[in-house]
Amino acid sequence: MSVPAINSVAWFEFGTDKTEEVKKFYGELFDWNFKLNTDLPGVNYHAVLTRGTPQPTGGIFESGGKFADYAIFYVLVADVAETIDRAINLGAEVLMEPVTDAAGVTFGRLRDNTGNHFGVFSMPAPAN
After folding, report:
1. Is 12 contained in some domain?
2. Euclidean distance between the first and the last CA atom of the chain, given in angstroms as a whole number
3. Which pLDDT band, with edges at 50, 70 and 90, does 125 fall under?
4. Is residue 3 a part of any domain in this protein?
5. How far is CA 116 from CA 5, 25, 77, in A?
6. Domain membership flag for residue 76
7. Which terminus of the chain, N or C, has fewer Cβ atoms within 10 Å?
8. The model's pTM
């Protein structure tokens, strides 16, 4: 399996207050497995593990009913802040300012100029 290219869709996410039902549905439909990830304090996030892939390819964010359910995609970018600035100049709205988790992954969420919700993320620089 190759590493996702910069500016390609490389992650997906469900936001829900019905985590177990979502896991059951997609687990049975696609034979997915899930692993709890607690890289952001106070956030329960379930990484999606698909057969034949060495790393998670998506996740389920436990919303706790704080917002409507959603399903979005994330694009891998070289620089999250720079990408968000460019998106704003193209008419996007920032829904979530960039944050960095304990593993060094930085991500943010936007709404494009037509109302679609999407995310961008970058990976930490490799250790020398």
Report:
1. yes
2. 23
3. confident
4. no
5. 22, 25, 18
6. yes
7. C
8. 0.85
